[in-house]
Amino acid sequence: MSLRPAVTTAGPRLAEDLARLTALADGQPLPIGRVLATMEERGYALAFLLLAFPFVLPIPSLGMSAPIGLCLALASLTLIRGGQPSVPPFLERRAIAYPALKALHAASSRTRRLSGRVLRPRLGALTSGPARALVGLSLCCAAVILALPIPLPLSNFFPAAAILLLAIGLLEGDGLVVLAGHAATAGLCLGLYLAWGAAMAGVHRVAAWLV
């Protein structure tokens, strides 16, 4: 299985994928392993999308951002090495709640006409070949940031949004959306670097004051 984008002929296929998965779930939680088995070559990109989506919703993550983020980071390493993506058994057993899946499907259905004009196969060099390693690197960075215990509002939202952009770009073969995902990830890394520098400067000032 691979994350190579499929050629689309009539707008984005993501809405069709989500409709199929919602019907497959039939009102029950949907295990990621079943997504991988059902969706074939699109399964891994869909798994990344489904696992990241709950973190952009205004619902408690219940401490799941750390294990899921770390497992997504490990799964994305295979893209960096140019291999076939795989997910740990922990993530295969992880089930997506039906309300979250239904909400994602409803959102994609409502915006399908608009997304059909926005999402389309383009800039294929950014979604295939050697560029997949760069996508894997961005996914890995965003997933690691998702896993970090950052005690700030929306600390899970932004890395999850970057993962969603990268996954949607791969699913639709849209290099421009993948480029937006790279930019979002770079912004996250820069913000984290600046925040760490500010925190260390504060610690040094406090230490100097105490001495």
Give the SSE map.
Layout: H1 14-25, E1 30-31, H2 32-39, H3 43-52, H4 65-80, H5 89-93, E2 95-96, H6 98-110, H7 112-118, H8 131-147, H9 157-172, H10 175-210
Antiparallel strand pairs: 1-2
Q: What report would you give on this structure?
A:
The model is unreliable at 1-11 (pLDDT under 50). α2 (32-39) runs antiparallel to α3 and α3 packs antiparallel against α9. This protein starts with 13 loop residues before the first helix and ends with a helix. 66% of the residues lie in helices and 2% in strands. The radius of gyration is 18 Å and the shape is globular. It is mainly α.
Query: What class, by secondary structure content?
Result: mainly alpha
Our count of helices gives 10
Order of helices and strands: HEHHHHEHHHHH
On the 0 to 100 scale, the average pLDDT is: 82
Tell me the total number of β-strands: 2
Notable traits:
211 residues; mainly alpha; two-stranded antiparallel ribbon; 10 helices; globular; disordered N terminus
Structure summarized in a few sentences:
With 211 residues, the chain is mainly α. It is built from 10 helices and 2 strands; from the N terminus they run H-E-H-H-H-H-E-H-H-H-H-H. Helix 1 runs antiparallel to helix 6.
